[in-house]
Amino acid sequence: MEPPVLRGQARRALALGDDALLAECETTFFVGPGPGGQHRNKTASAVRLRHAETEVVVTATERRSQAQNRAAALIRLRDRLRALAREPVPRKPTRPTRASHVRRLEAKRRAARKKASRRGLE
User: Fold this and answer.
1) Cα 73 from Cα 50, distance rounded (Å)
2) How many domains does the chain have?
3) Which string of b and e fits 16-39 if b means at least 16 CB within 10 Å?
4) What whole-number distance in Å separates Cα of residue 41 and Cα of residue 113?
5) Per-residue pLDDT for the chain (122 aa), expressed as one digit of tens each?
6) Is position 45 within any domain?
7) Positive or negative CA dihedral for 28, 34, 40, 41?
8) Looking at residue 72, which CATH number applies to its domain?
9) H/E segment holding residue 111
10) How far apart are CA 119 and CA 22, in angstroms?
């Protein structure tokens, strides 16, 4: 999708409460990787949230509790949506100053003289 459309959808999603935002998301639970012992290896405590409208996907696997991972994933989802909703600041084209232009040309002349002196032409 185009960024302006996604930006509007992200803003709309940010205005929702936690429960409403979770209702819009596809939630998947899976066995998380890494250390944690038998409890972590046997339970599906890792959480993946996928916001359908904006196609933003976040995961949380660092906790042993599914509820804590869901809360962490929701915080990450809001952070991603906030970044997506941010309007980029338009850049203003600038020109180099006269002094910087003169310095650049002088540096080029110095380099050219140095190279010419190596060839033995000057």
Assistant:
1) 10
2) 1
3) eeeeebbeebeeeeeebeeeeeee
4) 70
5) 567 788 889 999 999 999 999 999 999 999 887 777 777 778 888 999 999 888 999 999 888 888 999 999 999 999 999 999 998 889 999 999 999 999 999 999 999 999 999 987 55
6) yes
7) positive
8) 3.30.160.20
9) helix 98-119
10) 72
